Amino acid sequence: MSWVTTVSIWLIPTLILVILLVGTWKKVPTYEAFVDGAKEGVQMAFSIVPFLAGMLVSIKVFRESGALDFFITLSEPVLSLFYIPAEIIPLALIRPLSGNGALGMTSDLIATYGPDSFIGRLASTMQGSTDTTFYVLTVYFGAVGVRKMGDALKVGLAADVIGVIASILIVRAVFL
Amino acid sequence: MVNIIWVGLFVVGFMFAAINGNMEQVNEAVFAGAKEAVTICIGLISILTFWLGMMRIAEVAGMLRAVGRVLQPFVRKLFPDIPKDHPAIGYIISNMSANLFGLGNAATPMGIKAMKELKELNNNKDEASRSMITLLAINTASITLIPTTVISLRIDYQSAAPTEIVMTTIMATACSTIGAILIDRYFYYRRLRKGCGDN
User: Fold this and answer.
1) Which of B5, B113, B167, B186 is nearest to A128 (CA)?
2) Identity of the residue in A70, A145, A153 whose CB atom sits nearest the CB atom of B2
3) CB pairs under 8 A between A and B
């Protein structure tokens, strides 16, 4: 699997180089074009602030109040019926809400149980195969000013549930 | 939906804080959350400026259009609403390929650009269109080929085989992506049945 690591290290520099070389070859004023595009990034980042502030505060309130812990304890007995380790539940619940929170939890699980344990492998797979739905929703729709999200949240959360279940089944099948 | 969840998180949170007697931490959370939002956005400026600058070069050089033409048939099946050769297709493809290679940071600006184009196609309404929901579904399922962050984390904790979870991640991600597309289709046809056909 070492080629995977090599690919991931070379990918970004290669991408930049290809863009710059093709741009030059096509006689694009590269630096001017870069600055022109980059300007948009500044505006974009600032336009996200209100959306992110609203979401992050509500999620943090929910977590710090102990409500999240309560719902985790509530769901534990049900999930243990399906041989889902209780240790993984907080990660599965945090994943759609907070990317930094999930990353913190994954590293906590890996540190506690070891990267090559069942829980360590499960946490790694889960962290890699799902995304922070609320963040993606907030940033993508916030940046373009979409307020009525339709079924987007439902679809995103359903995808998370599938990702969590698939991670558990696949890691069980491959490593147990 | 989002309004209800958003208010719900606050209401339930404050109720639990009252019961648990940790209103003080919740008070702090309010300010910490707002601060974190600004910090994330400041952090995003660096990524967004650099990659949007790079992507502008790629765009002017016609690279996005070239990649788009190759993958066009596949993307057009997923997004039947987008007219042929529309720039949105190029951005969607770049967004998907960046996600695929674990360049989450590069994927975000291109996803946002795609959303902008899709909004214009939707007559600039502040309502999410069919294609916008599909694009979001694919992004939340997070199609990944190389989970870079996780691998580096496993290396940090001295794993005997840090990359052994790459295959399981690809398989899990494939499941959630296929699932997301199917669920997205299900909701779309349900909306059609309910009679909001233009959406």
Assistant:
1) B167
2) A153
3) 364
